[in-house]
Amino acid sequence: MLLIPCPYCGERDIAEFGYGGEAHRARPADPAALSDAEWAGYLFMRRNPKGVFAERWHHAAGCRRWFNLVRDTATDAILAVYKAGEPQPEIAAEPPRTPSGEPPIGSGNEGARIALPGEGDAP
């Protein structure tokens, strides 16, 4: 069970909350001036880092207010919680630690390549 500390209500179970995506994402000033590709990028392209990340949350089954929190996505550790409209607190971003000992970014197999069937065969 993951407990989220609502800045208005206190600590509650995650089942009471709705995830709102990346925090501090500003809407374009003039969306009509954007190309279709730029507008689609704003609507659908999101960062999804492994590590420290600022997120928006909605306390749907409680006070019904929106707030932000900073969470380590590798461990689910909540590092800071703050009300919407407040600036993001400074958090020292450490590389995520994983119990399996895998590298912080990637699988460690970036240089490896598996040959596909038919590759390397003589013509």
From TrEMBL:
<protein>
    <submittedName>
        <fullName>Sarcosine oxidase subunit delta family protein</fullName>
    </submittedName>
</protein>
<dbReference type="Pfam" id="PF04267">
    <property type="entry name" value="SoxD"/>
</dbReference>
<feature type="region of interest" description="Disordered">
    <location>
        <begin position="86"/>
        <end position="123"/>
    </location>
</feature>
<dbReference type="GO" id="GO:0046653">
    <property type="term" value="P:tetrahydrofolate metabolic process"/>
</dbReference>
<dbReference type="InterPro" id="IPR006279">
    <property type="entry name" value="SoxD"/>
</dbReference>
<dbReference type="GO" id="GO:0008115">
    <property type="term" value="F:sarcosine oxidase activity"/>
</dbReference>
<dbReference type="InterPro" id="IPR038561">
    <property type="entry name" value="SoxD_sf"/>
</dbReference>
